[in-house]
Design goal:
Number of strands: 22
Shape: rod-shaped
Oligomer: single chain
Distance between the termini: 169 Å
CATH topology of the largest domain: RNA Polymerase Alpha Subunit, Chain A, domain 2
Helix content: 10-25%
Number of helices: 5
Order of helices and strands: HHEEHEEEEEEEEHEEEEEEEEHEEEE
C-alpha cells in the first residue's frame, strides 16, 4: 500500500498545528521555571572627594545573576552602573574596595541572586595629597558685660589646624581663621565653640572644623594720669597753641595691665574735623596699649594763636 506523504502531513493540519503550539508553550513554561545564569558587564563609577582625581579608570565588573527565566527578563532595563564613593577621610593614594552583591543595583521586584562578581576586590588609585599644620587666628570680638574688660587675651583650643590637599594650594596657606564672631554679655570665665572659616580654602580639607575660644572678663581697674601733652600726627601748626595744651587721662583695664602702665604709654591726639585754623576745635583721642581703654578730661581742645614774646 502506497503512503501519500503529502496527505500524511496535511491531514488534520489544524489539529496538528494546535498540538505543536501547545507543546511549545509547555516547553517555554517549564523552561521559565528552571534556574539559569545570565552574565552582565557593569561599569564601576567611583566618586572621589573634592580636589582628588583617579590615576586610572577602574576596570569593568562582570556579574553573574541566577534566577528563573521569567525573573531574569526583569533585568533588561536595570542600572548597569555600580556607584561607590571614596571616603572623604582618605589621605593616602590607594583605596581598597571589596564589592558585595548588595552593591549591584538589582531591582527589588526581581527574584534573582548575584552568584559571582569579577573582579570582587579592586584597588582604586588616586593622586597624591599633601598635609600641613597651620596656626588658627581668632576673628572674635568680645563685648564684656557691665563695663568688664578682657583679661589676658583670648585662648584658642586647638591653636593649629591640620590641612589636607594639593601641594600647590597648601603652599599658599599660612593660617586659617574663625568666622567673624561677636561674643556679647560676657562676665567671668567663658568658653565658646566657634567654627573655622573654610570659604577660601577651596578643595582643601581642614580639621578640626571648629575651635574653643575662652578667656576671662574681669572688673576693670582705673587710673588717672595728669598733665599729658596734647599732640597731633602732623604737629601743631606754626604760630598756634592748644588750649588746654595738657589734659588728664583716665584709663581702665585689667588690674595687672594698669599696674604696669606708665604715662609714656599714653598719648592724646587732637583730631580736627575741618581746617586747622585759629579758633578750630579738635576732638581729643587717647591712644593706649591693647586691653586698656582711656579718655581725656576735657575731651576737646581749641587752637589759638600763640602769644608773641617781647
Amino acid at each position: 500500500m502506497r503512503i501519500n506523504l503529502t496527505q500524511l502531513f496535511t491531514r488534520n493540519w489544524a489539529l496538528k498545528l494546535a498540538a505543536l503550539f501547545l507543546a511549545i508553550l509547555l516547553y517555554v513554561a517549564v523552561a521559565a521555571q528552571q534556574p539559569i545564569n545570565q552574565t552582565f558587564t557593569l561599569n564601576l563609577k567611583v566618586r572621589v572627594p573634592p580636589g582628588r582625581a583617579l590615576r586610572s579608570a577602574p576596570p569593568p565588573v562582570v556579574v553573574v545573576v541566577e534566577g528563573r527565566g521569567g525573573e531574569l527578563l526583569k533585568l533588561r532595563s536595570f542600572d548597569k552602573n555600580i556607584a561607590v564613593s571614596v571616603p572623604d577621610t582618605l589621605a593616602g593614594g590607594t583605596w581598597h574596595l571589596a564589592l558585595r552583591p548588595s552593591d549591584i543595583g538589582i531591582p527589588k521586584n526581581a527574584d534573582v541572586q548575584v552568584t559571582d562578581i569579577t573582579p570582587r576586590d579592586i584597588t582604586v588609585m588616586l593622586d597624591s595629597v599633601a598635609r600641613k599644620d597651620v596656626r588658627i587666628v581668632a576673628r572674635v570680638t568680645v563685648s564684656a558685660d557691665s563695663g568688664g574688660v578682657l583679661q589676658g587675651g583670648l585662648a584658642i583650643t586647638p591653636n593649629q589646624a591640620h590641612l589636607v590637599g594639593p601641594d600647590q594650594l597648601l603652599a599658599t596657606i599660612e593660617s586659617v581663621t574663625t568666622v567673624p564672631t561677636e561674643l556679647s554679655g560676657l562676665s567671668g570665665t567663658f568658653a565658646r565653640a566657634v567654627p573655622l572659616d573654610t570659604s577660601n580654602l577651596g578643595v582643601v580639607r581642614v580639621a578640626p572644623r571648629e575651635v574653643q575660644v575662652s578667656g576671662e572678663v574681669a572688673v576693670p581697674a582705673h587710673r588717672v594720669f595728669g598733665g599729658i601733652a596734647v599732640e597731633t600726627g602732623a604737629g601743631v601748626p606754626t604760630g598756634f597753641v592748644f588750649t588746654p595744651d595738657r589734659v588728664s587721662v583716665e584709663v581702665a583695664g585689667a588690674p595687672q595691665r594698669l599696674a604696669n602702665l606708665t604715662r609714656d604709654s599714653v598719648k592724646v591726639i587732637a583730631r580736627f574735623s575741618g581746617a586747622a585754623t585759629a579758633g578750630a576745635a579738635a576732638h581729643l583721642t587717647v591712644l593706649t596699649p591693647p586691653g586698656v581703654a582711656g579718655h581725656a578730661v576735657p575731651d576737646s581742645a581749641q587752637l589759638k594763636v600763640a602769644p608773641r614774646h617781647k
